[in-house]
Specification:
Strands 10-9-6-7-8-11 form a six-stranded mixed beta sheet, sandwiched between helices. It has a two-stranded antiparallel sheet with strand order 1-2. It has a two-stranded parallel ribbon with strand order 3-4. 45% of the residues lie in helices and 17% in strands. Helix 4 crosses helix 9. It is of the alpha/beta class. It is elongated and about 75 Å long. The chain has two domains: 4-209, no CATH class; 216-379, Nucleotidyltransferase, domain 5 (2-Layer Sandwich). The structure holds zinc ion (ZN). Residues 79, 81-82, 85, 91, 96, 98 line the site of zinc ion.
């Protein structure tokens, strides 16, 4: 039986919101910027109640004045922090002057010197930041979730407790709280410049441990197989994917590259890259294929070990069906260092439609192909 956790009534469905409905991917995808919810709300050093509040912010399930006006509980909606706008999740995080000042100070504390961007743009930046699985991201998540929590607390205190903190007071309270929390949870950090800089900046006293690099290299396909390396690339103004087929001797058979609209997620691009490479292999008549992508998530989804987001379902379905065209096809995760050729192809400038080409290749790509055959890469996990 599902446990009811808070009492927002979903008007369209006429039912109570539950934990599982908040985490429902389709609902979140429809809600827009909240689709990368998991990454933002879950951090190794987060305080549980901060994560829960972050989850509610991302799912837009907080009961703000706008919600109460819609439900005809109150007449007018006003942000109690700035008193200059209606109150809703978008305004509170981060369009409100008060919250912008607080968030901007917290970013500065973390070592990010820039002004807070306009609402959705700021969230886009946050989602991308939270997408990296490194220790500094977990520190960032602890700061973000604590900030969201304390801003919501401040709003509650002003409404119901009748007292308020200035921006400076809240920032100082937040810094103390976050530091105390991190100090109790972070005992060791990898000894890299970024971690040292953050620890020094926020005053975190931790031990630094040397990271042993992982040795990795591009692995040629088994005899009789063709290797497909793929990659997706998402930057601020450009999105694309690419890949290449190589023989057992490491000789390039064919490459492809395409540009896409920037509204796609990295995962969608990674899966499109795999789909296009498989299509190409079928067209060229290869019966045995080894697919390697540097997106662990994409590989897990194809292997049915991870849940497929709604927007990727048709691409993944195509990949599953295409497997029937092969005698044998395998999917493996490749380290980024061994997938540089596909990475370069994914970030090439060009028209929207997918372009295919064969050797001779441009000098930079050729150099990577040659290095893949000779170099053992050192991978340092941050
Ligand atoms: Zn406001």
């Amino acid at each position: 039986m599902q446990k009811l956790v808070w009492g927002e009534v979903n008007k369209k469905r006429k039912k109570m919101t539950t934990i599982s409905s908040t985490w429902n991917h389709e609902k979140i995808a429809a809600a827009g910027p909240a689709r990368k919810l998991h990454g933002v709300a879950r951090g190794n050093y987060n305080v549980q109640r901060h994560s829960f509040l972050t989850q509610q912010v991302c799912a837009r399930s907080l009961i703000t004045d706008d919600v109460l006006v819609d439900d005809k509980v109150i007449q007018t909606s006003q942000c109690i922090l700035c008193k200059q706008s209606r109150e809703n999740v978008e305004h509170l995080f981060f369009d409100c002057e008060y919250t912008i000042k607080v968030w901007s100070e917290m970013l500065k504390w973390f070592g990010i010197q820039r002004s807070v961007l306009k609402g959705k743009e700021e969230w886009r930046w946050i989602y991308n930041k939270c997408n990296k699985h490194v220790q500094s991201t977990h520190i960032f998540k602890a700061i973000l979730s604590a900030t969201l929590f304390e801003l919501w607390e401040e709003r509650k205190n002003r409404k119901f407790g009748n007292y308020n903190n200035t921006e400076e007071q809240l920032v100082s309270k937040l810094k103390k709280e976050v530091l105390m929390n991190l100090q109790s949870k972070v005992h060791k950090l990898h000894d890299i410049r970024e971690n040292r800089a953050i620890a020094a900046k926020i005053g975190l006293d931790v031990e630094f441990e040397t990271v042993q690099p992982i040795l990795c290299s591009w692995i040629p396909p088994k005899l009789g197989f063709v290797k497909l390396n793929t990659d997706g690339s998402l930057k601020k103004t450009r999105a694309g994917y690419g890949g290449l087929l190589r023989s057992n001797e490491g000789r390039v058979i064919e490459c492809y590259t395409a540009q896409c609209k920037c509204n796609k997620s990295v995962l969608e691009l990674e899966l499109l890259a795999i789909q296009k490479g498989i299509e190409l292999s079928i067209k060229e008549g290869y019966a045995r294929l080894e697919v390697a992508s540097d997106s662990l998530k994409a590989i897990q989804i194809i292997k049915k070990k991870a849940r497929c987001p709604f927007q990727c379902r048709s691409t993944v379905q195509d990949i599953w069906e295409a497997q029937n065209h092969f005698e044998e096809v395998t999917f493996t995760h490749a380290y980024r260092e061994t997938n540089r050729a596909a990475d370069l192809l994914a970030s090439l400038e060009g028209p929207c439609e997918c372009r295919f080409f064969m050797p001779p290749l441009e000098a930079k790509l050729n150099r990577i192909i040659e290095e893949d055959l000779a170099v053992v890469y050192h991978r340092v996990k941050h």
